[in-house]
Amino acid sequence: MLFDARSARQVAAIGDDAAEDDLPELAQRCAQRIRAQLGVRLPANGYPSFEASAMEPYARGMEHLRQGDALSARAYLEKAAAAAPSNPMVHSGLAAAWSALGLELRAGQEARLAFDSSAALGRVEQLEIEGRYRAIANNWPRAIEIYQALFTLLPDDLEYGLLLASAETRGGMAQEALGTVNALRGRRSPLGDDPRIDLAEAQAAGALSDYARTRQAARSAAEKAGAHGARLQYAKARLLESGAMQTLAAAGFADVRAEARRICAELGDRACVAAAYRIEGNQMAASGNLAAARSLYQAALEMANQIGNANEKLNTLAGLANAAKLQGDLRAAERYCRAALPVGEEMGPQKSYPVSLDLAGVLAEEGRIAEALALIRQSLQVSRRIGDREGIGLSLGALAHTLALQGRSSDALGSYREALGILREVNEPFHLGETLLEMGNTQLEQGDLPAARKSFEETRTLSHDFPGGFAASEIERAFARLSLAEGHFADAAAHARLALGSFAAAGREGDRIEAAAVLTRALMAQGSIAEASAVMEQVPSPDVRKLPAESVLQFQIARCLVLAHTGRREEAVRAMDVISAEAARSGLPRLAREALQARQAVAKVTRPAP
């Protein structure tokens, strides 16, 4: 047994036996296992060639990495690399630090440099370096194969087991990662009590959308880290726990997050603080407080810029773009997406394609279909090349939505079905529900009301089963449109009122005017012209320069219908002529068709309603 003399804590323990004549081999075997438990690796042919000035910064850098402090690790490892520029172990460690900071291109360069110069090392070290290189390159099958071999060869080496679990989770084998976690827990103390095992379980459970298990595992990791006095590890585990609690809508998640942020601030870990602000911003956006969300994202972005953390910078820019889009401010959303593009490109293809899809969504809403389609097809190509099934599904869904805006409903439905098959396969309920909702809207436009109802009802079931739910307001608006098409005008008005109230409270201006338009048409269908007129009067004229073209058009059509039914038919017809011309220039054929149909409906109104 080996003890830490400062804390009197046992840090390693092994047991083995051999015949007296085999004592040298026994000693070597025990030394190797002790080194494995301590995280010390030596090549089979002796110690690696380390310049004396590189040894300490390398050791400190790797320890900071094990504690989850990639920023501090990078500083030490860069110093070690300057002192030992030809040492592959140093370059591999630096690659891990860059990767943890989200800078995948730099990480890939360092990992390749380490891999290309590792031939003189022992077989174990060669495999370790190749494993990191393959993982950074998103070659998950090979990375998993390597880490399985290393973990089998050195079962007492906790690091290899953790690397295997991480590769399995990120490589789409989260269930297998949980099996690896169970194997790690079976190691004798203190190895089996390492809080990083619980964190690996939490991350694998999250990938499986098992947020209750994520919460439990993160809490266990925090308790163990706290008992060992590892405050930063404790704070990060609590931050992960708060995110799971937030998803589960569990009481107290804000207090847990605040505690984690406070500890991170005390320890000077601004990346952790920025993550806490971003997670709180996500919660504010989900609850409808978009102004507060943007403020929190901005605070996180400033910190990310100060410390050079590309991961947080990308995440916060994506949050800002999403919040701006939800508020109907497409110009701001485009600015944030374009600011995120070079960050994502520097980080690598797995980070860049989601930004391209976000930007494509904004451009499509603005009527810039050709630009949107180019970005979507590029994202689809990248996702296929790197084998990202979720990315393929999301790209196909974005393609379908854009085709629908073009009026190519049949082509859109084919892409939607392909996207749904993949999203079901990868068990992504939120994006699955979002795609079902959009497909239902396309089915509704085609007049296939039973199919639209089936899509909307499945979305509602997914939202109900998802912890905390999602897209409640969008689902209400979808059922309002469906009920209106089915002739159930009272139901349509009831659904539309709920959607309008939620969108208005959240400051989602584009969605608000669209819900107001549906409510107005439902009320007019019931003969409640005065009430419909009152709804229009309560909603200010939309800013056509910022808001989505489709939302603006729906509102303008509803307003013209109210004018026509209140004795101002000629004024309404003239307005519809202008609107139809604008819709024809919008680059969105579907809107042009809807405007023409609405113009015909307005022209048919011959007298004011009694």
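[next item in queue]
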Amino acid sequence: MNVLITGGAGFIGSHLCERLFTEKKRVIAIDNFVTGNRDNIKNFIDDPNFRFIEHDIVNPIDMDEKVDLILHFASPASPIDYANLPIETMLVNSIGTLNMLEIARKNDCRILVASTSEVYGDPDVSPQKEEYHGNVNPIGPRSCYDESKRFSEALTMSYSRVHGIKYTIIRIFNTYGPRMRLNDGRVIPNFISECLNNRPITIYGDGKQTRSFCYVEDLIEGVDRAARSEDTIGQVINLGNPFEITVLELSRYIKTLCNSSSDIVFMPLPKDDPLQRRPDISKAKALLGWEPKVSLQEGLRRTIEFFAKNHAEYVNVDLSALRLKKLSIIMPVFNEKNTILEAITKVKYTEVPDLEKEIVVIDDGSNDETKEILSNLNDQSIKIIFHEKNRGKGAAIRTGISVATGDYIIIQDADMEYDPHDYRKMLKPIIDGKAQVVYGSRFTGERRDMLFWHMVGNKLLSLVTNVLYNTTISDMETGYKLFTRESLEGIRLKSNRFEIEPELTAKFCRKGLRIYEVPVSYAGREKAEGKKISWKDGFLALWTLFKYRLIS
């Protein structure tokens, strides 16, 4: 199969060339080196299955060999590029696209057109689905890119309607990784460059605008699947990572991973810079069975290593010597056969980019199929401990704490009433130095299905806690408790059952630690669904609160 790739020496295009070699395809790459780089293709320039043509696709080109598939990726794609090359950007996405569509028509071959999330402009809905028409300024400084990509899509659709060509349009969201250019102007290379040189990190606006970043390896997998699948013919598909973070958070992650001493400076936000960008990848999951696999932490590590090794002006950074702080996630489990695998998977793939993660699962003598499920779990990254008989949630948590090695510890029930995506929200006060203990409150966040008498009981226990310990917490019994390892020093936990919650609270308060609360989402279960706490545990919690108030 002969595959024509425009922009073949560019950041994404060169990775595509490399991928197609592994599939034994013949690759014909076209690039004019306006933003591409010869070094990106040096490793396969002499391969007999690779042909490179230096050419500007704005000018027509007659192919002297059959083309079976076109991957159209030629275009400046960063704010600096299309600010410096606005006319070139518009031409390559209009006339350049026209020329590639003509080759597709003449060769009766399929074409995959690389579009962009910029067609959504500054969206007023999030996440963005393919059906969303966008909110684009047609005469703004970014319009040369935004509108030319929209024209490229429209022209592709017109060729399909008139000439019947087989097309797929992919809308690429922010992608990063090795082979990005130093002067790319995009946020990740900017931050890495500044951090490795210990220069101030420049943030435009207040840093609260959000982005989602897809590692290039994941994107290439998505592109390859889209190009091979018959189901994607005639489809427009988002490709990106739905994990959303603020630009300010990203700067802190990169600073940590670079072991940098850079300060952060704020500059005015450029005109039409989107405040929110996050893909809905439901269609990609359904049609391609695709979703990103590389975590932001791992992707950033690989990208930082690339920049550190390939650019002499950077300080020498030994990332292997960098020790990130660790979050230990303790998961007590009893008879959770229906949710245990979902819980572990969700926790494992929840991003905490500037921390290492340790998952400790304690099976507390389950007598359903939970023990067998955990025994068959072949995952060396997860510690699994079995209690021979049921001893209670408190005993399981105490076992978990005894083997946890993290700087921070959080309790995560396996019933999925709490959402691991709230980890970052809970970690922020500790990382910012505002707290050593953080509780996730169900009463200040989004919740559903909390039973009325459970709500009354929880509020009564919180009121008693506040009276006895002079606090103002709204949710003492929350299952989401996060604390530093130092906060446990001098505390000896004794509870075996659900009274572990008031015991922790009482002893934190007696130690003089103020409890910080953040709102978390909560989806409660009923007894028929496996909820195990009862009114008897409420009385035991009251007794525990009074006991530790009166007894040292």
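[queue empty]
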